[in-house]
Amino acid sequence: MDAPIAVQMYTLRDYGTLEEQFATVAEAGVGAVELVGDQGVSAEQLNQLLDANGLDVVSSHVQLDDLRQDLASVAAFHKAIDNDTIVIPYLDESQRPMDEAGWQALGEEMGEMADKLAEQDLRLAYHNHDFEMQTYGDQTALEILLDAAGPELLAEVDVAWVSRGGQDPAEYLGNFDDQLFAIHVKDNAPEGEAEDEKGFAIPGQGVMDWQSILPAADDAGVEWYIIEHDLPADAAAVVVQGAEFLEQALASDTAE
């Protein structure tokens, strides 16, 4: 599989051992993963498992508090596994700014973190949910945060959460030229369906308009398309069928 496709390992968190999870990704023909922190193992163990399955790391989700408390240790671990991109995945309610000035201040803090990581040839990105689609004037909270941070902070746009936040994903991706690291390829099920899966669907089997979203991501310079499902009933099916859909869709987009 030559397309820049990866799997977010959060999707597989309840699927067997870590070795079995990596094997599932490799057997689906996907050659790259986005990690969840350190995956609960040492850098040496992680490198052994990745090598055994022929997988590369494109990025890893690391909590904001971990970066605040010990940026140096986080950087050292990820350099040891040859990962150059760290993504802040989520803000709990106590961390979320309540106004525009708060989002600006948080963006400035993340910009300083990104500058420090850049000194070690590491990059920092931010992953959204729906609450960052809150608007202040003509900008969403996510846009305010990224503008305040400066160009060193990249965006990992979760298009399903963008849609749930009331924005059109294809149109919204036009806001991130030169800052779009990745999109999370996640699908929403039709309203009222898949409630036991938090309303998410296997990529390509829900209601997201991928014929518009994928070209828009490409136009914005996206580096990676990362498959994710927050609560899958069958995580292996998400990886296999999601990868099949994405490979075909990207090939079709390229051919047009």
Description:
The mean pLDDT is 96. The chain is globular and about 45 Å long. It is 41% helix and 19% strand. With 256 residues, the chain is an alpha/beta fold. The protein contains 9 helices and 12 strands. α4 links the parallel β4 and β5. The chain has a single domain, classed as Alpha-Beta Barrel (TIM Barrel). Strands 1-2-3-4-5-8-9-12 form an 8-stranded parallel barrel.
Secondary-structure element sequence?
EHEHEHEHEEEHEHHEEEHEH
CA radius of gyration: 17 Å
Average of the residue pLDDT scores: 96
So what's the CATH class? Alpha Beta
By CATH, the superfamily comes out as Divalent-metal-dependent TIM barrel enzymes
Distance between the ends: 19 Å
List the helices and strands and how they pair.
Layout: E1 5-8, H1 18-27, E2 32-36, H2 43-52, E3 56-61, H3 64-80, E4 85-88, H4 100-118, E5 123-127, E6 135-136, E7 139-140, H5 141-149, E8 153-158, H6 159-164, H7 169-172, E9 180-185, E10 187-188, E11 200-201, H8 210-219, E12 224-227, H9 235-255
Parallel strand pairs: 1-2, 1-12, 2-3, 3-4, 4-5, 5-8, 8-9, 9-12
Antiparallel strand pairs: 6-7, 10-11
Would you kindly provide a brief summary of this structure?
The chain is of the alpha/beta class and 256 residues long.
Name a few traits of the molecule:
Xylose isomerase-like TIM barrel domain-containing protein, two-stranded antiparallel sheet, eight-stranded parallel β-barrel, 9 helices, 256 residues, alpha/beta, IolE/XylAMocC-like, TIM Barrel
